[in-house]
Design brief:
The structure is a single chain. This protein is α/β, with parallel strands linked by helices. It has a single domain (7-304), classed as TIM Barrel (Alpha-Beta Barrel). It is built from twelve helices and eight strands. The protein has helices at residues 7-10, 16-20, 37-51, 69-82, 98-110, 141-150, 171-183, 197-209, 226-236, 242-250, 255-275, 290-304; strands at 26-31, 57-60, 87-92, 115-119, 155-160, 188-193, 216-220, 280-284. It has an eight-stranded parallel β-barrel with strand order 1-2-3-4-5-6-7-8, surrounded by six helices. Helix 6 (141-150) packs parallel to helix 7 (171-183) and helix 11 crosses helix 12. The protein starts with 6 loop residues before the first helix and ends with a helix. Mean pLDDT is 88; it is low at 1-11.
Length: 305
């Protein structure tokens, strides 16, 4: 079913799927919707500072349980209409009926946004709680992929987990679930954060071995403070690498040393991933520009050496 949107709107932006499949790796940034006036100020400062780096695209996340739905849409609309950036909105199925989801998709398409990253999402309040679908919603991320595909001319991305999704019983089933999302119509995937390049490479290899060629972009977030390590398993589904954790523990009493080590580690990991031929790097910025710019600049220097 089509939303009946004018083709000039539906086709007004490049396809991120096409960019990711292009000859050069993409570089992109992820932001989250602010909840306060100060948060909004920080977000737009980061967006303006990172805009000068000319990223391939930027993404705006979606709060747990759809709590930031309207803000996500509003920020994406503003990026689309007031900046030179190519925006991608995240969309989750939590607490939304199919009718509500179609309305959100239509609103985004109305300002020319044709790139969406869809995830099923976690229950609000407790990400580990039992998943309960909306009675008039969708059950799985693959269902949401199909809904977006039926709604117009969109490029659709999905999430990937280098270790495995926390709810998946094992890596084999996690790989199967991922491939089902791809076969439902996903053009590309972006991983949750990880801190060991081998975790990403194993994911890429097992997906390819299963006959799936959907490009998978690594999601990278530099560790700039120790609480990132503490929360990494909740975010990524993977334990923080023990050897790397020991390096951070050795400088735990020096916040600036922690930050320097995080920038160094992220830069080294990105260089290795690029050497391994990844289709791009997606930086999770936490609405701050400085660490992301430092890693990006390190990669540019490395490319010129």
């Amino acid at each position: 079913m089509s939303l009946g949107l004018p083709s000039v709107l539906r086709n007004s932006q490049p396809s991120i799927g096409d960019l990711i499949r292009g000859p050069e790796p993409t570089f992109s940034f992820e932001f989250f919707p602010p909840k306060t006036a100060e948060g909004e100020r920080l977000l737009w400062r980061a967006i303006r500072e990172l805009e000068s780096l000319r990223p391939s695209f930027v993404s705006i996340t979606y709060g747990a349980g759809g709590t930031t739905r309207d803000t996500t849409v509003a920020v994406t609309e503003r990026v689309a209409t007031e900046t030179t950036l190519l925006p991608m909105a995240h969309l989750t199925a939590v607490n939304h009926s199919v009718a509500e989801l179609r309305h959100i998709i239509g609103r985004l398409a109305g300002v020319g946004v044709r790139n969406l990253l869809v995830v099923r999402g976690d229950p609000p309040g407790d990400p580990t709680a039992e998943w309960v679908p909306h009675p008039d919603g969708v059950e799985y991320a693959e269902d949401l992929v199909r809904l977006v595909r039926q709604s117009g001319d969109f490029s659709v991305g999905v999430a990937a987990f280098p270790y495995k999704h926390p709810r998946s019983p094992d890596i084999a089933s996690d790989t199967e679930y991922f491939i089902r999302k791809c076969r439902a119509g996903a053009d590309f995937a972006i991983t949750q954060m990880f801190f060991d390049a081998d975790d990403y490479l194993r994911l890429r290899d097992r997906v390819a071995a299963a006959g799936c060629d959907t490009p998978i972009v690594p999601g990278v977030m530099p560790v700039t403070q120790l609480r990132t390590i503490e929360r990494s398993e909740q975010f990524s589904g993977a334990p923080f690498p023990k050897a790397l954790g020991a390096r951070f523990e050795a400088v735990a009493d020096d916040p600036e040393a922690v930050r320097r080590l995080g920038i160094e580690q992220a830069s080294e990991m990105c260089r290795r991933l690029l050497d391994e031929g990844v289709p791009g790097i997606h930086f999770i910025t936490m609405n701050r520009s400085t660490a992301t710019r430092e890693v990006w600049q390190n990669l540019q220097v490395g490319a010129r050496v």
